[in-house]
Design goal:
Order of helices and strands: H
Keywords: Cell membrane, Developmental protein, Membrane, Transmembrane, Transmembrane helix
Membrane topology: Single-pass membrane protein
Number of strands: 0
Structural class: mainly alpha
Pfam families: DVL
Number of helices: 1
Helix content: over 70%
Subcellular location: Cell membrane
Main location: membrane
Strand content: under 5%
Length: 45
């Protein structure tokens, strides 16, 4: 019984790591798009 709950805990931890990694990647993409947009809007030539 203890081994089963341990494996479930590990599965949850692994999925959380994947989830947080995805969130970090998404935030990085949004930041890059935001920076490009600001750069283009402030570009005077």
């Amino acid at each position: 019984m203890a081994a089963n709950s341990f494996s479930i805990g590990c599965a949850k931890a692994r999925s959380w790591e994947r989830c947080s990694k995805r969130i970090k990647q998404q935030r990085a993409r949004v930041y890059i798009i935001w920076r490009c947009t600001v750069l283009l809007m402030n570009w005077h030539e």
